[in-house]
Amino acid sequence: MExxxxxxxxxxxxxxxxxxxxxxxxxxxxxxxxxLDSLLNMVLLTDKYIKETVNV
Length: 56
Fold this sequence. Notes:
The structure is a single chain. Helix content is 88%, strand content 0%. It has helices at 2-22, 27-54.
């Protein structure tokens, strides 16, 4: 899980850097934000699946 956390943090920093250069509404920033959202959703869905599976 630490690897995923590191990936999320790296993408978050990238998004912040891009926003600082291109602005918060640029296509580059939006793309980085969507990629970050995908990573976060993956973690949330995995956690939910594990909790549901363990509680069955």
